[in-house]
Amino acid sequence: MATKKKEKKENSNKNAWLKYSKEGTDKIFEFCEGYKDFLSKCKTERECVTEIIKMAEAEGYKDLYSVKKVKPGDKLYANNMGKALVLFHAGSEPLEKGMKILGAHIDSPRLDLKQNPLYEDSDLAMLETHYYGGVKKYQWVAIPLAIHGVVAKKDGSVIDVVIGEDDNDPVIGISDLLIHLSADQMEKKASKVIEGEDLNVLCGSIPLDQEEKEAVKANIVKLLKEKYDFEEEDFFSAELEVVTAGKARDYGLDRSMVMGYGHDDRICAYTSAKALFEIKETDRTAVCILVDKEEIGSVGATGMHSKFFENAVAELIDKTDSYSELKVRRAMANSHMLSSDVSAAFDPNYPSVMEKKNTAYFGKGIVFNKYTGSRGKGGSNDANAEFIAKLRGIMEKHDVSYQSAELGKVDQGGGGTIAYIMANYNMQVIDCGVALHNMHAPWEVASKVDIYETKNGYVAFLKEI
Ligand code: MN
Ligand code: MN
Fold first, then answer.
1. Is 84 helix (H, G, I), strand (E, B) or coil?
2. Nearest Cα to Cα of residue 262 among 142, 120, 77, 104
3. Cross-strand pairs, 404
4. Helix, strand or coil for residue 407?
5. How far apart, in whole angstroms, are the C-alpha atoms of residue 104 and residue 268?
6. Residue 13: its pLDDT value, please?
7. CA 109 to ligand 2 center in whole angstroms
């Protein structure tokens, strides 16, 4: 018994894989198969919303705006323009008592097509892009890329586009300069090796017969018309995202990790939604918020700064009992939230940017970041010690492996999340999530056991807070 107790105490420090028998490990792998499918399919915020609504409806969730009355136990979703989503599992207690909120973002770094993207140069058809979020531009050349998104036409129809994912699909890409002629390029700073305006996608090279001017471009326009029924000018009202082509895959000879495009932050979005679906009943209302535009500052109607969530809570209160602004304010202020986003995992290839005692590691479970920010915690939500203490107790009660981390060494850089925006409502918020290698690269890497522990951490939070 004495030895067992000691083991339990050291749990937060030991490798989480060691907790599991063969049966437990099988469960982790099985859970991650579902996640890999999700990640392979959902490469835009819109695709994430569509897929999670499908998952939610299978769990009995209904459109909040389609129901007249809400009672305890009801499951509802609110879709914000197809690009952000809120899921509510109504609790037995009044909303004024606050909510238990899991939040994550579903936009990822990528290259967006410009509104007038298509041109021809030297018998090649090219597409202009504008990168979205923080990217190392040199990572996006000489790899297979796909296009995902929508084209909205003047007649009100919206065409879904996915090119480059089916085995029979073509892929597109951005060329790099051959090493043989790179004498000048190799002398440049990494930020200048490939510049934003040079991220042009090659998409065709066959000229259209009988066409005199820009015949290759004309051929691409014709193809798009035939296959997708849109004209060149319809790019004006399109949202087409150039993303990494290909499926998420097992990574490592022992298959212990997942390599995929867009772990940041779909890894926390998927696990948050799955955790919410696991809850059978709840005292206070349980919520999952999935937002867009985090990578560019949480702006716009579908970002966390939008009033959408607050409005949805007001609707919910109105449909539950009688609406008052004070009830909305109390519901927000009395809430607790895990604002989830990815963290940097220690990487033996780049130890110099990490302070080893306050870094996340693969295999150590869900990561809690008391604060994020940069240059003296600037822009961070510094979570309250009392709230963190409560979370420690909850994680330990449910045998969830957890760790505390900062994003790299002081003064090395940093990053922000949606936590501080929700904290403005005076609720208790902490940053947490899954640690990654290669964050913001075309292919990011996460540990399967961390994905599983994170989901379990969310479930424990929803049960106990
Ligand atoms: Mn993120
Ligand atoms: Mn990010």
1. strand
2. 104
3. 368
4. coil
5. 6
6. 73
7. 7
> Ligand 2: distance of its center to the CA of 294 in Å?
7
Ligand 1 geometric centre to CA of 258 (Å): 17
Question: Measured in angstroms, how far is the CA atom of residue 414 from the centroid of ligand 1?
Answer: 12
Q: Is 390 helix (H, G, I), strand (E, B) or coil?
A: helix
CA of 295 to the centre of ligand 2 (A): 5
For position 4, what pLDDT does the model report?
Answer: 45
Contact 356, 398 (CB under 8 A): no
- Predicted confidence at residue 442, as pLDDT, reads 98
pLDDT along the chain (465 residues), means of 10: 45 84 98 98 98 98 98 98 98 98 98 98 98 98 98 98 96 98 97 97 97 95 96 98 98 98 98 98 98 97 98 98 96 98 97 95 97 87 96 98 93 86 96 97 98 98 98
Measured in residues, the chain has a length of: 465
Q: 3-state DSSP call for residue 102?
A: strand
Name the nearest CA neighbour of 127 among 216, 203, 226.
203
For ligand 2, the distance from its centroid to the CA atom of residue 135, given in whole angstroms, is 9
Please tell me whether the peptide bond between 265 and the residue prior to it is cis, using omega within 30 degrees of 0. yes
All structural domains of the chain with their residue ranges: 16-108+261-464, 110-244
Residue 378: its pLDDT value, please?
Answer: 87
377 CB neighbour count, 10 Å cutoff: 15
For ligand 1, the distance from its centroid to the CA atom of residue 431, given in whole angstroms, is: 11
Q: How far is the CA of 299 from the centre of ligand 1 (A)?
A: 14
Among residues 13, 8, 10, 15, the alpha carbon closest in space to that of 362 is found at 15
What's the rounded Cα separation, in Å, for the pair 434 and 417? 13
Give me ligand 1 centre to Cα 342, in Å.
Answer: 6
Q: Give the CATH H-level superfamily of domain 110-244.
A: Aminopeptidase i, Domain 2 (2.30.250.10)
* H-only helix segments in 230-359: 263-278, 308-320, 325-333
Q: Fold match between 16-108+261-464 and 110-244?
A: no
State residue 408's pLDDT score.
86
* Distance of CA 65 from the midpoint of ligand 2 (Å): 31
Alpha helices in 279-384 (DSSP H): 308-320, 325-333
If residue 100 lies in a helix (H) or strand (E), which one and from where to where?
Answer: strand 100-105
Q: Please list, residue by residue across 36-62, b when 16 or more beta carbons sit within 10 angstroms of its beta carbon and e when fewer do.
A: bebbbebbbbbbbbbbbbebbeeeebe
Q: Is 20 exposed, middle or buried (0-12, 13-18, 19+ CB in 10 A)?
A: middle
- Report the CATH number of the 16-108+261-464 domain: 3.40.630.10
Q: Determine the pLDDT at residue 12.
A: 52
The ligand placed nearest to the CA atom of residue 340 is 1
